[in-house]
Structure formats: C-alpha cells, structure tokens
Design goal:
This protein has about 425 residues and is an alpha+beta fold. The protein contains 13 helices and 14 strands. The protein folds into four domains: about 35 residues; about 45 residues; about 180 residues, Nucleotidyltransferase, domain 5 (2-Layer Sandwich), CATH 3.30.420; about 70 residues, no CATH class. Helices cover about 35% and strands about 20% of the residues. The longest helix has 15 residues.
Length: about 425
C-alpha cells in the first residue's frame, strides 16, 4: 500500500507526460504498481495495523466489572489481577482504567502545603453498618494524615464520641512517634461546642480541651463551607474506602484493624500521587514533638450494659462475667487501655482485660461462688411452703352393721 504522498508523486509525474517506465525509474516502484495507482481516482486510505494482543486483555472484563461496582483505585485493581496471574506492569493497568473510568469535572482549588512537623489533619469517615452483640451499629473510620510527608494513620471504631476520638489520637501519636504543632479539624462537636470567628476564641469541648492542652498542640478549625482546606484528609478518607475497605472480608473489628495496619505499611511505602515521593522517606524530616515530654494521657470511656440472667455482660462481641447477685441490673463499663471496670451505683464490682477476637467468654469462678447453694436453698424453701396435694372426693357410702348383711344373706329383706 502506497502512502498518499507517493500517490501524489505518481500523478504529478504522469501529468508531466512521463510514461510508465520513466515514472517507475524515477520513483523506484514497479511498472505494475505505477499502473495500478495511476488508475485510482481517489487517494489510497492508510490501512490500520492489526492490534497486537495485550497481557491485560484476559483481565479487562474483570476490571470493567469491578469498576461498575464501586470506583476502585487502579492500584487496588492491579494488586488483585496480579494475584490472579497478571505479570505485566502497573502502568498499563492505570492507562486502561483512566480510559474506561467516567471522567468527572471538579472545581479548581489552591493546594495548601505545610512545612515539616507543623500540621496534621483529622477526619471521620462512615462506612455503613455492622452487627455486633446482636445489634446493628455504625462503622466509622478515623483518619489522620501528616501534612508534609503524607504519612497516614487509619483506625476503625464503632463510636465517634470524644473519648474514642482522643484514644484514636493517642494511637496515631504512638504510630508516628510524636505529634505535630497543630491539627486541623472540621467543626465536629467532639472538638468544638461553639465556633468563633477567630479559632482560638471558640468554645471547646471540655474533655477534648483538656487533652490538647495536655500535649500542647493547637487545634485549628476549617473555615465553614471550605472543605478544600482539608483536601489532604478528604482524599485519604475516600482512598481508604476505594483501595482498602470496599470488597474486603473481615471477621471482626479487631481483624479489620489488623488488616488496615498491614495496608498502611504498604501505602506509606508507596510513591504519593501529589508529592511524587515516598511518605516514609519524607517522614524522616517531619521533626514531630516527642511523646515522652509529657506524662501519658489516660482515657476512660463509659458505656452502659444490662447484666444477663446467666451473669454476663457483652462488649465488642465477647462476654464477661459479673458477680451473680447483679444479674438483671444495669451497670456501667469504664474502659481504658485494654481493661474495663464494671460499676454499679458508682461502686466497682469487678474488672476484666478486654478479649481479642469475638464470641469468646471471660469467666471468673468467684463471680459464681455461692450461687449453687443459694439455688438449692430456694428450691428447698419452695418445697416446704408448697400446698398439700389435692384429693379427689367420691360419693358418700352409707355405713351399716354386719348383722344387717347376715340377715340379707338368710333371705331377709333390708
């Protein structure tokens, strides 16, 4: 197939009066080829090369199916098809996902960057519901990201109360080995009760205020209706959903947090899409405020439970015994650092270490001592105070002397 330029040269030579042989010598084409193309009235159309098969072809239907379910990340899909046997690179997967994923316009924003060790951002994400202790509960995701390095910390919880928020901060500080000078929040009630025009003049949640003053970091509040200021953490929340949570299988809340901890190891070692650097490498210059400068902060979380008839309370899918005399009573759990105490009327009646996993039972023998003898006493008392058995009464029978029956046997009459 000749190109259009070659065909135009043939036509031009022919218009100059050159014969086939002269045109063939001039262009280097065979006389038959020259004759064939001089007879054409239209320019030759370029022929498309046959598309070579791609390593990704067998996995494209799977990728399309997954993208129709939820907006998974290309990195997530690459990991999945790699486990299925794909031996190509991640770039070809990203290019394909970029072509088939629907494009969505977004408003332009001005990115806000911070220096090392200055700021972290925090937010909650809600990820549907989960059944625990026979009850349907909401599942939440705590997210903290360091502004400079983009190092992430993620933890799943069943509550977003202030105690849980503080404990998640402590876990994040422990994970990073320190805290930043300030932390940016939206206007969540666990942090601020009334927001003032000047952030420092706001009315803080008393429990959270005690916490941030203890560690000395400054809480910053996102300006209303300006979520782009918290763009780093907003992106993290969505990324956790798409790249980790959606489509995952988890046996318990603890298992969910174990799996996300492994996910964090990989993500914090992967090149970040904005900085084009590995977060763990940039983290080396974060220069966080160390934790050992202040005493450890103790968080006590309170929850209420009703003691079952068999003398147990439930907590996070496990059962814990309490003294039998409190069966049926409403008690308060005060939870702190892997332990919890059980209170009745402000008096501690027992304590337990929090069990890992679910469907486990923590039973203390002393909680049931005396229960059997008390049951036997109650049974004995029931027997002693029970009513005598009922007697059936029949028709009354007339009583007569034997002499009457003897007379009757000798032929007499009654």
């Amino acid at each position: 197939m000749l190109k259009m330029e070659d065909w135009l040269v043939l036509r031009d030579s022919n218009s100059q009066g050159l014969n086939l042989s002269e045109i063939a010598r001039k262009t280097g084409h065979d006389r038959k080829t020259v004759r064939k193309y001089l007879r054409r009235k239209t320019a030759p159309e370029p022929q498309k090369r046959p598309t070579r098969p791609s390593k990704l072809d067998p996995y494209k239907p799977y990728i399309l199916k997954k993208l129709n379910e939820v907006p998974y990340t290309a990195a997530r899909l690459f990991r999945e098809i790699k486990e299925m046997g794909f031996d190509g690179g991640e770039t070809i997967v990203k290019d394909f996902v970029r072509k088939v994923r629907p494009e969505q316009g977004v408003p332009a924003v001005l990115r806000y960057e911070t220096k090392p060790g200055v700021q972290a951002q925090v937010d909650w994400g809600e990820l549907g519901t989960v059944e625990i202790d026979g009850k349907i509960k909401k599942l939440y995701c705590f997210n903290m990201i360091l502004g400079y390095s983009r190092m992430r910390y993620v933890e799943f919880t069943l509550s977003i109360d202030t105690s849980t928020l503080i404990q998640c901060h402590l876990n994040a500080f422990q994970y990073f080995g320190g805290c930043t000078q300030e932390i940016l929040y939206d206007n969540m009630k666990q942090v601020v009760i009334r927001r003032a025009l000047k952030s420092s003049d706001s009315e803080w949640n008393a429990q959270f205020e005690d916490f941030f003053k203890h560690y000395g970091f400054i809480p910053r509040l996102c300006r209303p209706y300006r979520p782009q200021i918290k763009g780093k953490i907003e992106n993290t929340v969505g990324y956790v959903k798409r790249d980790f949570f959606l489509g995952g299988e988890f046996s318990s809340l603890e298992n969910l947090n174990v799996q996300v901890f492994e996910w964090l190891k990989r993500v914090n070692l992967s090149v970040h899409g904005t900085t084009h650097e590995i977060p763990l490498e940039r983290f080396k210059v974060e220069n966080l405020v160390p934790l050992d400068q202040v005493p450890a902060y103790k968080v006590v979380k309170k929850e209420t439970r009703k003691v079952s008839r068999d003398c147990y309370v439930s907590y996070l899918g496990n059962k814990y015994s309490v003294p039998y005399k409190f069966a049926g009573r409403t008690v308060e759990l005060r939870i702190s650092e892997g332990m919890f105490q059980v209170y009745v009327d402000r008096e501690s009646i027992c304590e337990h270490e929090t069990l890992s996993g679910n469907c486990r039972v923590a039973r203390k023998k002393e909680h049931f001592q005396g229960l059997l003898s008390e049951i036997l006493k109650e049974n004995s008392a029931c027997r002693n105070t029970s009513k005598p058995p009922m007697k059936f009464t029949g028709p009354e029978v007339e009583k007569r002397s034997l002499e009457i029956y003897e007379a009757f046997s000798e032929g007499g009459s009654l």
